[in-house]
Design a protein that fits this description.
Layout lengths: L13 E5 L4 H12 L3 E6 L2 H11 L2 E4 L5 H14 L5 E4 L15 H29 L2 E6 L13 H19 L4 E8 L5 H8 L5 H6 L9 H12 L10 E4 L17
Parallel strand pairs: 1-2, 1-4, 2-3, 4-5, 5-6, 6-7
């Protein structure tokens, strides 16, 4: 039986994680560093990015991903100080609290679209150029289960749905140039930002827990595990896919019609 050879793995083991200073991003940075990657931590929170970079012997960069100028400078700095990027995690996002569509603040809408859609596109385009220039790599975008069904996250959900489509576009456009692009869609995850939201009464973790098949919320490290696998050679034939990491929220939806899961 004729088999095609496995694609060569890029020599560079440099990963870039946007939104890398907290939550899922920070868990991913630590996971990748432990696996032998040199990691650039990109975040708007300069102090946290620098502290985590020092912890993992990486590179911390303050950046607003919605700024092409800042992202171009960050891409050049990573290439100069660490080497060409061969692993990219587009984790940075502007979050949102639940509300009705008629209550959407227009300035907040613009910021969410600029960060989640435009910022992610710039991330893939600018750091993906490293991969195009050096013959391959793997990219993971961070979607959300709000991309896959209705929610009261009026701006956030649609931007994440657009990100799912963007992932597929890049996966097909760059697949024959040795670059894989996949999307991970977390469900309710116990990040520091989520915990702060619970404390403010904006969300109820118990209500969320009851919607999960596993009876518990997701931990940041569990999302990082899937991201790391998608960056690794073990997923070498996987591209253009969307993987929910949601403790079974999507699977259990219709059970609510029959009394729920308890």
């Amino acid at each position: 039986m004729h088999t095609q050879p496995m694609p060569a793995q890029p020599a560079s083991r440099v990963a870039v994680v946007t939104g890398g200073a907290g939550g899922i991003g920070a868990a991913t940075v630590r996971h990748l560093a432990a696996a032998g990657w040199r990691v650039a931590v990109l975040d708007r929170d300069a102090a946290s990015a620098l502290a985590l970079a020092a912890e993992v012997d990486g590179l911390g960069i303050e950046v607003d991903i919605a700024s092409r100028e800042q992202m171009s400078a960050a891409a050049a700095r990573v290439a100069n100080e660490l080497g060409p990027c061969s692993g990219l995690v587009a984790c940075a996002a502007h979050l949102e609290n639940p509300h009705a569509p008629e209550d959407q603040d227009p300035d907040e809408w613009d910021r969410i679209v600029a960060t989640n859609l435009t910022g992610t596109f710039l991330t893939l385009q600018l750091f993906g150029q490293h991969m195009l220039d050096h013959g391959g790599g793997s990219i993971v975008t961070l979607g959300s289960i709000t991309a896959l069904n209705a929610s009261p996250l009026v701006a956030y959900g649609p931007t994440k749905a657009g990100l799912v489509a963007m992932t597929r576009n890049f996966a097909v456009a760059w697949g024959r140039r040795g670059i894989r692009v996949n999307c991970v869609c977390p469900g309710p995850t116990r990040t520091p930002a989520a915990e702060a939201s619970y404390a403010r009464g904006e969300r109820d973790p118990e209500v969320m827990r009851r919607q999960t098949a596993l009876g518990r919320l997701v931990l940041p490290g569990e999302v990082a595990d899937v991201i790391s696998w998608l960056l690794s050679p073990q997923s070498s034939a996987v591209t253009g896919v969307t993987i929910p990491v949601d403790s079974g929220v999507l699977a259990s939806q219709l059970w609510n019609l029959y009394g729920g899961l308890g």
